[in-house]
Amino acid sequence: MKYQKLLTNGKVQCNICPRNCILGEGNSGFCYIRKCENGEIKLKSYGYNTGLAIDPIEKKPLYQFYPTSTILSFGTLGCIMGCQFCQNWQTTKVKAPIESCNKTSPEEIVQIAKHYNCKSVAFTYNDPIAYYEYALDSAKLCQANGLKTVAVTSGYINPEPAKEFFKYMDAANIDLKGFSEEFYQKHCLAHINPVLETIKYAVNETDCHVELTTLLIEGENDSDDMIKAECDWILNNLGDNVPLHFSAFFPRYKYTEKKSTDFSTLMKAYQIAKNAGIEYVYTGNISNIETSRTYCKNCRNPIIKRNGYQLLEYNLIGDKCRFCGAKNDGMYEPD
Q: Which residues contact 115 (CB under 8 A, 6 or more apart)?
């Protein structure tokens, strides 16, 4: 497999993510699904997943990538991140035997997606960076068969594998978990800079459609200063047209004593981002019609109205606003 280095002491270094785990024979990496066997690192979860689901694309969340379409979603076990608040901890943190998962080849992924008329396939739940080879092989086959590909990811990946990864992703929702190194170290057992570099690369140097999500935990990453700093970084490095989603935390994994995020916290972040000049801001996983709308960047009329994942009104003709004819950012079905 690519992105590994044999060291002089006989150990092997995994170079997929910035952890760069150094593994001796029989040892597994931080993600626990990449293991050193016979002097090379192997992905033990290749071809295995924790289940397949057909979702609305908005659930990823992607609001400006073929809205109203359906997507086939899957993930595996393990994760490269150490988020203490993980919302999917039953699969990312519990070290269940791989054999307990469903076995589905990349070819079968394509067949299932096409059978159910899905527009795209999402590599999600535990982060496709962890199951890099399985996700990449599936993505290549999806694209060859007319399916769009979507990564729901932390963005915690080294620069070289990132180039190949995003080459085969039509869209990505990247988690920007909190805007400080302290937050990443304390709550995610990781570092923020590799994530920022991935986001800049994906937005500025690839054709991948990117949207960002920040899950807000009250008292940890929701201060006005932190939200403003995040928005300023986005504007200075990405521009004003990358959609930004704020989502609510619910007590999970090691943070069961923390309270769920109030909608008022999401709304405060929403207003800060809008006031900063970010064009497309949304709140997620707590339904609100006003903050789920996509507004035309020219005439400011609502071009897509939603209630959660339910479509209420669609005012686009291709990628043009029905009211003023202006082209809007995102990927849409042609007229």
A: none
Write down the residue that tokens 């033990």 correspond to: 44
pLDDT, residue 302, reads 96
CA distance 311 to 219: 33
SS3 302: strand
Of the candidates 56, 208, 237, which has an alpha carbon nearest to the alpha carbon of residue 139? Answer: 208
CA distance 242 to 66: 15
Q: Report the alpha-carbon distance of residue 309 to residue 251 in Å, rounded.
A: 23
Exposure letters 255-288 (e unless 16+ CB within 10 A, then b): beebeebeeebbbbbbebbbebebbbbbbbbbeb
Spell out the residues 6+ positions from residue 219 whose beta carbon is closer than 8 angstroms to its own. none
In the chain, DSSP assigns E strands to: 4-6, 12-14, 22-23, 34-37, 40-43, 48-49, 52-56, 70-74, 102-103, 120-123, 148-153, 171-175, 209-216, 244-248, 281-284, 294-295, 302-307, 310-314, 316-317, 320-321
Residue 286 token pair: 């707590």
- What domains are defined for the chain? 4-43 (no CATH), 48-292 (3.20.20.70)
CA 39/CA 160 separation, integer angstroms: 22
pLDDT tens digits for range 206-245:
999 999 999 999 999 999 999 999 999 999 999 999 999 9
Is 47:35 a contact under the CB 8 Å cutoff? no
275-318 confidence digits (pLDDT tens): 999 999 999 888 899 999 999 999 999 999 998 888 999 999 99
The pLDDT value recorded for residue 309 is: 86
- The whole-model pTM stands at 0.96
